[in-house]
Amino acid sequence: MTSTPTLLATELRFQYATGTRPRVLDIARMEVGTGERIFLQGASGSGKTTLLGLISGVLAGFEGQLEVLGENFAEISAARRDVLRGERMGYIFQMFNLIPYLTVEENIALPCRLHAHRRERITEPTVAAEVRRLATELSIAPLLGKSVTQLSVGQQQRVAAARALIGRPALIIADEPTSALDFEQREKFIELLMKECEREKAALLFVSHDPTLAKLFDRRLHMQDINRTDASPGTA
Amino acid sequence: MILLRLAARSLRNRVLTTSLTVFSIALSVFLILGVERVRRGTEDSFANTLSQTDLIVGARGAELQLLLYTVFHMGEATNNIDWKSYSKFRDHPATAWTIPISLGDSFAGYRVVATDGNFYEHYRFRGDQALTLGSGRAASDVFDVVLGSEVARKLKLSVDAPVVISHGMSTSLYHHQDKPFHVVGTLKPTGTPIDRALYITLEGMEALHMDWKNGAPPLPGMSVRPDEIRKKNVIKVGQITSFLLRTKNRIATLRLQREINFFEGEPLMSIIPGVALSRLWDTLSVADIALRAVSGCVALVSLLGMLIVLYASLNERRREMAILRALGLQPARLLFLMLMESGLLVLLGMMLGAGSLYGLLFVLQPWLVERFGLFVPIQGLSLAEWGYLGVLLLASLLLGCIPAVAAYRRSLSDGLSVRV
Fold it and tell me: A39 - beta bridge partners?
């Protein structure tokens, strides 16, 4: 652990603006150190996705303190949070969320195309070479020229992972990224994820319902342990 | 650059919606430009009904009346011009040429215009367009008649057809049955009032009324037969209704106009056709305003249509917007992306609309002239048309902000877990 954590939440509370819904998050303290790999688990509706939304800066309007990658989210603008997310975070979606009209290669390269800072941090000489390296590691190199709509679910998930990893983000948020992978692919995926995090000293916040993976992480967090609300499942 | 590529690829991905939107915009652009072209074509056709004529000369009266009966063959002259007066100005040193015009009779409701060979040689319309015979030859014999294109088409007459001219403009009065004419030629369409008249010689007009006494037709058995008229070597023309005049140089026009207006031989009046036509068009400005109003309505409906289509396609974009936001695309760039898409759609629509208009004009131009006498020029976009397109583009970009802001707001509420 270093003195400046990647993520520090203190008395973090959140409630959706509709007014009729109860508070969905109430976290006294949560800290993720630089390079720390956290396994986050919790029942459906326990506030996992809301928490990830707040950490990634997409959701706003919280109470308390939330510092991510050295920036105080209570003080910075939405635009600044967007830039921070684009430049220094990698997000692997539960629903993959690939752009259907782009090829595999274009989807993976997109963060670098949108953010110069991300492009400057690639390890290979060109974005194309970096894309190829990640694709090779995830066994999707032969698919680079294909449309993502032609891929299987597992292949799509690996493309989503490669897109999150490109440009060496300092914080990787993975929302149930292995749910659609078979055992072999899951092993490869976790191996690559860990290797990238290790190499870049990137923090990893990994959400999964598969408890067998927890042992690979530095720390395991249960939503019911950190979230003090009595929100019943299904509200978040 | 990446945003432009994303916008283009996204549009291509939604090919059906994109095509429908582009088609709808193209239709609007086609209508806006088309209405503007027709409006300008109407004005130009009107202003160019007569060209290269410096003065129209007639008996003193109202300027508008002189213009109407000489150029548009509408209404009646209050008085005639003596042949001697006409000859004086025809032979004036400043005069390049004159075209005498004698009116009074008609055929099937169409005006019969008596003139001479100068009409076929010097009459110009729409800049430097000369009259062209579609068939036959110009009228030269006493009982020759040449038909305007609309007369020939509508009455289904061709060369050698007999024509019995009626006295005056009413078809129910006296018919000059004792002196039938024969069609010797037809003119090609001009898109001007020339198409709606018949042309005989000045001698022909004199021959028709040779045996009339004090404005009354000859009594039975007193009429002069055509063969008797032919035997006379020279038919003397006594009067004409008006004449067109071209000066040798433009500087002489005003001097000659003054000379005609103050002519002591008889009260005459001369007008400059361009000025008179422009004044007449101004009096008809209600039609111009109506066409402009139609253009405005078309533009408004088009923009609203485009807004509806863009808004309706928003749902298709929710996932995309959420992904791009998750990848850190800032609000301003997201707005810019949406606006670029609107801009691309409008540009494509404009190109398709303008291209279709030019294509259709190219095919239909001759038919429009022949059928409606409307000459719509095929030429580059005018400043006003560029202005219309500029306003359309600007307005579409401004309107595009509405779905763009809506898309951004939805992307905020959708967060990172959009399920659409």
Answer: A206, A220
Q: Name residue B115's beta-bridge partners.
A: B201
Decide if A87 and B331 are in contact by the 8 Å CB cutoff.
no
Dihedrals phi, psi of A122, to nearest 5 degrees: -70, 150
CA–CA separation, A21 and A218 (whole Å): 34
From B244, B230, B407, select the one nearest B318 (Cα to Cα).
B407
Q: Tell me whether residue A117 is in a domain.
A: yes
- B101 close to B107: Cβ distance less than 8 angstroms: no
Residue A60 DSSP SS3: coil
Residues of A in contact with B332 (CB under 8 A): 79
Nearest to B415 among A53, A99, A100 (CB): A53
User: Considering the domain boundaries, does residue A154 fall inside one?
Assistant: yes
Query: Helix, strand, coil % (nearest 5) of chain B?
Result: 55, 15, 30
Residues of chain A with Cβ-Cβ distance to B418 below 8 Å are 95, 97
Report how many domains make up chain A: 1
Establish if A29 belongs to a structural domain. Answer: no
pLDDT in tens, A66-90: 999 999 999 998 888 888 999 999 9
Backbone φ and ψ for B56, nearest 5 degrees, come out as -110, 125
3-state secondary structure of A149: helix
Q: What is the DSSP letter of B224?
A: P
Q: Does B413 touch chain A (CB under 8 A)?
A: no
**Under DSSP, is residue B141 helix (H, G, I), strand (E, B) or coil?**
coil
CB contact at 8 A, A199 and A20: no
Domain span at residue A207?
Answer: 35-58+87-223
Chain B window 307-366: which residues touch A at a Cβ cutoff of 8 Å?
319-320, 322-332
- The encoded tokens of residue B324 equal 């791009």
A114·B332 Cβ contact <8 A: no
ipTM: 0.80
Q: Taking a C-beta distance cutoff of 8 angstroms, is the pair A44, A8 a contact?
A: no
CA–CA distance, B216 with A12 (Å, rounded to integer)? 111
Tokens of B36: 């503007």
What single-letter amino acid sits at A188?
K
pLDDT tens, per residue, chain A with 236 residues: 445 789 999 999 998 876 566 778 899 999 999 999 999 998 888 888 889 889 988 888 889 999 999 999 999 988 888 889 999 999 887 777 888 889 999 999 999 999 988 899 888 899 999 999 999 988 899 999 999 989 988 888 889 889 998 998 999 998 888 877 778 878 878 887 888 888 878 999 999 888 888 888 999 999 988 887 755 444 33
What is the rounded CA–CA span in Å between residue B155 and residue B150?
A: 8
- Which chain A residues touch B416 with a CB distance below 8 Å? 49, 52-53, 56, 58, 91, 93, 97, 175
Distance CA B317, CA B400 (A): 14
Q: How far is B329 from chain A (nearest CA, A)?
A: 6
Q: Which tokens go with B367?
A: 């038919």
Q: Does some domain include residue A79?
A: no
CATH number, domain at A196? 3.40.50.300
